Amino acid sequence: MTATPTFIEANGRRYARPQQPVVVVCVDGCEPDYITQAIQAGVAPYMARMLEHGSSLIGDCVVPSFTNPNNVSIVTGVPPSVHGICGNYFYDVEADREVMMNDPAYLRAPTLLAAFGDAGASVAAITAKDKLRTLLGHQLRGVCFSAEKADKATAAECGIDKVLELVGRPVPSVYSADLSEFVFAAGVRLLQARRPDLMYLSTTDYVQHKCAPGTPEANAFYAMMDGYLSELDAQGAVIGLTADHGMSPKTDAAGRPRVVYLQEALDARLGATAARVILPITDPYVVHHGALGSFATVYARNAVERAQAREALLALPGIEAVLTRDEAAQRFELAADRIGDLVVVSDHLTVLGTSAARHDLSGLTVPLRSHGGISEQKVPLLFNRPLHGVDPARRLRNFDVFDLALNHASAPTGS
Amino acid sequence: MTATPTFIEANGRRYARPQQPVVVVCVDGCEPDYITQAIQAGVAPYMARMLEHGSSLIGDCVVPSFTNPNNVSIVTGVPPSVHGICGNYFYDVEADREVMMNDPAYLRAPTLLAAFGDAGASVAAITAKDKLRTLLGHQLRGVCFSAEKADKATAAECGIDKVLELVGRPVPSVYSADLSEFVFAAGVRLLQARRPDLMYLSTTDYVQHKCAPGTPEANAFYAMMDGYLSELDAQGAVIGLTADHGMSPKTDAAGRPRVVYLQEALDARLGATAARVILPITDPYVVHHGALGSFATVYARNAVERAQAREALLALPGIEAVLTRDEAAQRFELAADRIGDLVVVSDHLTVLGTSAARHDLSGLTVPLRSHGGISEQKVPLLFNRPLHGVDPARRLRNFDVFDLALNHASAPTGS
Is B339's Cβ below 8 Å from some Cβ in A? Predict the structure, then answer.
């Protein structure tokens, strides 16, 4: 008889096989102050208790501080230089076309979820939006479905069907707080029904794009979350919570978006079509942010124009950094062939666009809040258990959350 | 008969003599989102109107983003490299002692307020805390008093007496929102009673250190401000509003302060007392921030230890930049002889301390919010008039607020 191995490996990292269910939650756009303010307002009593008895740390997410690169980093345990997903969207130079990067064909590393499934652990991943499902569920033996298309989940494709019946809720609107609530509700029900060894819950930042920390709507969202986290805890789960990225207001005091249109600036300097600006925030769901984030990449035709573009970009207001491909690949651990010749990061109140005509801001019914830059890199790393054996000098990343929950969280009391 | 000159000069800048009262307001710690959220919550109807018909810009404050360097920059129109005030507190190497920098003896440039007074304009400056009064009122022929010591104002020292009678309010507590309200109330009464040509109102950030933008307490403060601004506007004043610095949460998600104790780290590396850490945020009013900000300077004994200190500092978590004296003096336009051998800036969630034992955090009854770093450099520049003739490529500073209000604000309708 072969003993079950104690550790499961993925991408060069070893994870302890869980003795009780481990639930990792990625709260999209969770600037740490959302939690601080919700606790402060008294609407998150579970999180207050959880952080008193568990652990509260701050980690760095991946820059660009966007959803896809970070969710993929979290489920692979490695940065984009290894897994290849550097944005939601990129310019495929060989094919000469701009493409969404949510096809697993672009994935260069297996997920740890798949490794756990292959090792016989029972695994489930639930995402808010369907765009992430195919990446997170790549080659996963287990359950993987999205709230957005919960009614379409089949046993063949998602490892589960009749999700609406299980959760007892209708399919939520893709632009709503309900979409995230469905993820939590499904997680709680699935834990009751199947008790998976490892579960990953990933929400959407619809609320965070609209509401500042401590405002009534934000507090209501975190109060909702607090209730479900409490239910997961009550079922004995080890909970690790992090975020894909933070969130900042991207407006002046009057609430008007502060946008620097890079393609316009480069066209004026280099002539039309000399440089190509790519906004890796771009995805099919742009209503709440107008495809405006704080990170862009620029493709130039040659070294001379690249230098001219860099100079022109550095002279623009609201720009925090302009890096060459190699500088950006090294500093942010990105795949050099998946970014442009230049990487542009704007400051905490500024977003980057291409040309005014290419951004539909009509959906911005409240002052724009967004992300993508270095200013949204700090994210919470929270656990409902004390951690042990973590080097205090270690630079923690959001993609260490599985390592911390599986390898460093204390055994629950009484186990 | 000599014609009154149209312009008044100060520190190499020319300001148009005002045709109607000009009121410049410095809202201490006014991260732009405070105003955005107050407007959004519907509690600042005047500011909503003001920004619809006037101007809303974002400017850079001086780093260190502290009160004294920025208030002095605003009233001199020049950076600390010219006026010499680089912090609230500094280490006088020659005298070998650490001193408060609120003595006008440290001021290397006259204020534009004094220049206006000398040119026969009627000028008034009202500050919340008395610590600023002697700097702002240096050699000023005009009115200058603090809310904190409003009852002590004498005609001989402050150009005014019976302030409590004028304002109709008691002396407020130094740790209160009332202290700032007193400044606004006094400004409104003074404008009615004496109609000064130029007025400077400078508040305190007691509320901003405690409350996040959009929370009920913050909104109440901005609603209060909104009412007084509306009264100033109704009296025909041109209003320019800016901030000395922004404000960020300096905690983890649980609301615990994220402090890096630099003296402890340097003592461990270099031996005790080899390096001296100075926190220029230090002032006599530390209850609400525990003398914890995001900017520090370090004095080393020699070049070898300076290099060792720099290396040790760069390895610490939460550090955004470590600059040499010359790099910092150039980048932040500081007086090189008023800063240490190294300048340390921490990130938007982190503050810098000396040693744990030297900081009293018992006054932090709510999660710490503070400033001092690059992350608090963006401040509002708001006007109740459209601006004309401002180069869109110009890097705006908070200390351009008098230039913008006096030289670029449109004449009021009907004048």
Answer: no
